[in-house]
Amino acid sequence: MATDPSSVANQRVVDTLAVRLRRRQVVGSRETALETVLVLRQVISKARFSNIDQLVEIIRSVGRKLVEAQPKGSPPFMFYIVWHLITLNRRQTIRSGTPCGKCYIISGRNTTLLRKGQPRKQNVPQKTTLNESHDMLKENDADDPDAFARTLVLMEAIQDVLDELETVHDNISKNAKDHIHSDEIILTIGKSSTVEAFLKAAAPYRKYTVIVADTAPSYGGHDMAQSLSSAGISTVLVPDSSIYALMSRINKVMIGAHAILANGGMFAITGSLLVATAARAHSTPVVVCAGQFKLTPQWNLYHEYGALDFADPSSVLGFEEGNLVDKVDVVNPFYDYVRPELIDAFITNDGDHPPSSVYRLINYEL
What we know:
- The chain is α/β, with parallel strands linked by helices.
- Helix content is 42%, strand content 12%.
- The chain has helices spanning 5-22, 29-46, 52-69, 78-91, 130-136, 146-166, 168-173, 176-179, 193-202, 220-230, 243-246, 272-281, 322-325, 358-365, and strands at 93-94, 104-105, 185-189, 209-213, 234-238, 252-256, 259-260, 266-269, 286-289, 335-338, 345-348, 351-353.
């Protein structure tokens, strides 16, 4: 099996993506999720297996390697992608022993695939248990066409996930005009493609003002402000130090998420905790725009203010400040941890959810 050319090719594809993740050559949750799904599709299409357990183990091994390639402390939102495919594969129900053929059903939120095969031969028992049917599935068996259909069903499920990722911004933004009202002042931080699409979708129907924090030291807010201004939205760029002073004039805070945790909290770009804390002090609602592929059953197991994923501290305090650098420890985390009590609602591609229902949503999805 180790010398199988297809196995070697699959291993090479997975290792390539793992290296790119470690080197941060793939940036952004949606881009990483898309790369993960494409690799899984290639691996599954070329994989050789004799039963469902082997197929599940192939998917799990790929997911394990990609999760380990993530930066330390960064929650693996691709866990949703991998485990979702495993769950769909487990839920596949095979009904045999009927003259009309078999039904393959994937129980998902939007997916129910029904496929009828050819009748089995007469020497196949009419009654089989689920475990017996599970063990009977063989690959490349002329008497058992289930293997090809099973792979076909899984490939259809992967395509559904790809379609969901490609249309996630449109599905989240379709009700933007119901969440944004005229003459509102909205605060956001950094550059989130989901929040950007959401704000632009409401622009033809509402006239409002967006205040963008520049998000030092990455200064992603500059690109966000320029993009929103180009779309005809009244935009004001402010430094991070002005957030608390301006919060009393803000009607709504809209931010993105890197990953949504099981307790309803989230990891978001650095500065999100500052915004959410200031909003709570002024009773300003905090709304998070994020796709459901960012759901993860993990909890925050590290510390209460951020993930153990740090950037170069020289962008915060340069090494030319030698006298000061020797006396302080400079921390530059990529993501803040925002507690669930600081969040009012999540706007996803499957509707709006309060933080208290995230755990139930994860149970339903996974």
